[in-house]
Amino acid sequence: MYREISRLLLYGNLGNSSILIRLADIFRDWEEGGYEKDDLIHEIYEQIKRILDLGTVCGFDGNLWHCYLTWVLMTNDNPFARTCERVGASEGSVNRFARSDFAIFRKLFDYDFSAVEQDLGIDCFSILCDYQAVPKRQRMYNQDVSRQVRTLSRALAAADVEDMFLLLTSYYKQYGFGVFAMNRAFRVRRREQEELEFLPISNIDRAMLRDLLGNESQKQELRRNTEAFLAGKPANNVLLYGDAGTGKSTSVKALINEYYDQGLRIIEIYKHQFGELSSVLSQIKKRNYRFIIFIDDLSFEENEVEYKFLKAVIEGGVETRPENVLIYATSNRRHLIRETWNDRTDMERVGDIHRSDTVEEKLSLAGRFGIAINFNAPTPKEYQAIVKALAQRHGIQMEEKKLLEMAQAWEIRHGGYSGRAAQQFIQYLEGAAE
Fold first, then answer.
1. Residue whose C-alpha is closest to residue 9's, from 111, 75, 106, 104
2. Is the Cβ–Cβ distance between 280 and 292 less than 8 Å?
3. How many whole angstroms from its chain centre is CA 65?
4. Rounded distance, CA 156 to CA 109, Å?
5. 280 in helix, strand or coil?
6. Distance between first and last Cα of the chain
7. What is the DSSP string of 363-396?
8. Which residues are registered as beta bridge partners of 189?
9. Residue 263 DSSP code
10. Helix or strand holding residue 30 (H, E)
11. pTM of the model
12. Closest residue by Cα to residue 51 from 120, 133, 142, 112
């Protein structure tokens, strides 16, 4: 095994701590002899456990060795994968290097572990290659990752080198490579003295825009701008503002379910991470995806100054915003920043009250969003219509008069009319019925 892996060129940048490199070192020690049997078995078991851990997170099943090799091919960052992501399998010398590497992976897919198992008295590789995973609950792992890995793994296992080339170039062109290929939504994290990480969000609400009741014109405007963005046409940053519980955040999140297969990805950024925005943009601007930077519940108090940095990043800094990035934010405040009378002490005697320099500086942040969409709280009749529609969708069997009376009482105790209150009321009924 170690001889094959040592000849990898494009896919050889795995790192000394990767499972494949560690297994190569272990098999080299086994072939050369002079090892302590118990120590070698222990090292093998450590790597088997790492494959099992990865398989649990990613939803591997069947031949976990094939799934792991497929995962390596799907996630590796190299010139061939980057070229295929952007332009497909164009002619070039890099293709020869890729085919050479795929020939090595072909041997790894077919690797015979029987000799090492017999010599060491273990059977872990045999179990790994015919693994029956414990049935997993739907939200225990990322279904997108599991589906992609298992589907591509089965195809690669039955392919020759040329077919592997065609399968992988097609995959890179359709999905790309790495973490963005297999996931819809992300958060960011930077530990001390480490590079910025994109952390996949696996537990995503699968709601579609059509599932959200009310605010139809608002959703249509959001859809229109997003589709223009995906088509490479001019599109605007969007601010969704209005009453709490009216579906602002859910509408943005639903976009990823609507347009994931068209290359849309969402990166959620928190206010304390605005200093990382430049780093985020530098890492995603050359990728063949369309990214929405999502800022939920955006607002600033009187003494907070992060809004100045956000203003420059959205529009106005030296470096322009990448064409494959938009910023969507939600807020309960139309102008994002709470205004006080102290802000207006320097306003002119004549003219609009927002001519105050201090207020103008703060209000200009909201103006950086080309589209502002107001999500209104539903009227009592609209609230009742939402309740009835949700009850029907969830199979709630109750006389309509009683249903609406209970919904009215629920609304009084839970902060007014909103789609969120209606959804929580239906969840209460479902829980009480179980």
1. 104
2. no
3. 26
4. 8
5. helix
6. 55
7. HHHHHTSSEEEEEPPPPHHHHHHHHHHHHHHTT-
8. 197
9. T
10. helix 19-32
11. 0.81
12. 133
Say which residue the tokens 């029907």 belong to: 392
CB atoms within 10 A of CB 162: 11
Contact assessment for residue 199 and residue 404, using Cβ atoms and an 8 Å cutoff: no
Q: Give the three-class secondary structure for 19.
A: helix
**Among the listed residues 368, 230, 207, 248, the one whose alpha carbon sits nearest the alpha carbon of residue 291:** 230
Dist. CA 122–CA 41, nearest whole Å = 8
The answer for residues whose C-beta is within 8 angstroms of residue 331's C-beta and 6 or more apart is: 239, 240, 241, 297, 298, 299
Which phi and psi angles does 268 have, rounded to 5°?
A: -90, 125
At residue 296, the 3 state secondary structure works out as coil
Burial pattern 334-353, b for ≥16 Cβ within 10 A else e, equals ebbbebeeebeeebeeeeee
CA angle 25, 27, 33 (to 5 degrees): 105
DSSP 3-state of 23:
helix
The length of the chain, given as a count of residues? 434
Helix count and strand count (H, E) for the chain = 19, 7
Q: Characterise 132 by phi-psi region: left (phi > 0), alpha (psi -120 to 50), beta (else).
A: beta
80 CB neighbour count, 10 Å cutoff: 25
Residue 374 — φ and ψ, nearest 5°? -95, 120
Q: For residues 326 and 382, what is the distance between their CA atoms, to the nearest angstrom?
A: 32
> How far apart (Å, rounded) are the C-alpha atoms in residues 81 and 79?
6
Q: Is 193 exposed, middle or buried (0-12, 13-18, 19+ CB in 10 A)?
A: exposed
Helices in 61-160 by DSSP H: which ranges? 64-75, 79-87, 94-109, 114-120, 124-128, 143-157
- Asked if residue 226 lies in contact with residue 382, where contact means CB atoms within 8 angstroms, the answer is no
Please give the sequence-ordered ranges of beta strands (E in DSSP) within 149-262, or none if there are none: 185-189, 197-200, 238-242
Looking at residue 216, its amino acid is: E
Predicted confidence pLDDT, tens digits, the chain (434 residues): 889 999 999 999 998 899 999 999 999 999 998 789 999 999 999 999 999 999 988 889 899 999 999 999 999 999 999 999 988 877 778 899 999 999 999 999 999 999 999 999 999 999 999 988 766 554 456 778 888 999 999 999 999 999 999 999 999 998 999 989 988 999 999 887 778 899 998 777 788 888 888 888 999 999 999 999 999 999 999 999 988 888 899 999 999 999 998 999 999 998 888 888 888 988 998 899 999 999 998 877 666 666 666 776 676 555 667 899 999 999 887 766 665 545 555 555 445 444 455 556 656 777 778 899 999 888 889 888 888 988 888 888 888 899 888 988 888 887 788 888 888 888 888 887 65
Q: Cα(70)–Cα(73) distance, rounded to whole angstroms?
A: 5
